[in-house]
Amino acid sequence: MYPKKKILLLILFTGLFLFLFALWYKYEHSMDKAEEFQVNSPEYSSKLVIATQGSDFKNAVTNEIVSHFKQDSIFIEVIDVSSLSKINPKDYNAIVLIHTWENWKPPIEIEEFIKRTITYQDKIIVFTTSGQGSYKMEGVDAITGESKLEETSFFSKVIIDKLQPLIKSKL
User: Fold this and answer.
1) Nearest 5°: phi and psi at 50?
2) Long-range contacts from 135-142, C-beta under 8 angstroms, 24+ separation
3) Hey, how many other C-beta atoms are within 10 angstroms of the C-beta on 106?
4) Is the pTM of this model over 0.85?
5) Is the CB of residue 96 less than 8 Å from the CB of residue 49?
6) What span, in angstroms and rounded, lies between the C-alpha atoms of 56 and 79?
7) For tag attachment on the chain, is the N or C end more exposed, with fewer CB atoms within 10 Å?
8) For residue 155, is pLDDT > 90?
9) Contact 50, 62 (CB under 8 A)
10) Backbone phi, then psi, for 166, in 5-degree steps?
11) Are 41 and 88 in contact (CB under 8 A)?
């Protein structure tokens, strides 16, 4: 075989391998769609929306936050981050964004929401998970950590503590 053909085949196989690896990585490590639900009456004056992605860890954090506030007179709406475009921050006292850092960046829905709602940052709490536990969007005051189930209560408490002044002052 000619050397040029060998080099061309090597480049093609390398490209094919990288493409298949990227597909596997996206399938293996991408987040599921979060189950959307509501707790309490939408008529309550105090409202909280939690936009999250589906994973065991994120579901556990979300459930602890909901359990903490469900006995209060607070309307709680849990949505998938893909539904953020429908959220008007004026309608909520507090917004929690729980997302993972995928492919070296946040999900586009999170990025677009933060840009669109820059004037409401005082009512938005961001929790970013990543493999190293330290990645976050530039210019965003985010809680960062790894998705470890044994740390669910720790991160839930951090988020709840940040929510208390936003939610409780409206009750």
Assistant:
1) -120, 115
2) 135/101, 135/104, 136/101, 137/106, 137/110, 137/111, 140/114
3) 25
4) no
5) yes
6) 16
7) N
8) yes
9) yes
10) -75, -40
11) no
Q: Say how far apart CA 89 and CA 101 lie, in whole Å.
A: 23
Residue 145 bridge partners (DSSP)? 129
Distances in Å between the alpha carbon of 158 and those of 41, 51, 144?
26, 17, 11
Token pair 């929306």 in the structure block, residue: 49
Q: Return the higher-pLDDT residue of 58 and 22.
A: 58
Helix residue spans in 94-151 (DSSP H)? 108-116
Nearest 10 degrees: CA dihedral of 87, 89, 92, 97?
A: 70
Residue 163 burial (10 A CB sphere; 0-12, 13-18, 19+):
buried
Closest CA to 5 of 59, 13, 165: 13
Confidence of residue 127 (pLDDT cuts 50, 70, 90): very high
Q: Is 13 exposed, middle or buried (0-12, 13-18, 19+ CB in 10 A)?
A: exposed
User: What does the radius of gyration of the chain's CA atoms come to, in whole angstroms?
Assistant: 20
CB 15 within 8 A of CB 140: no
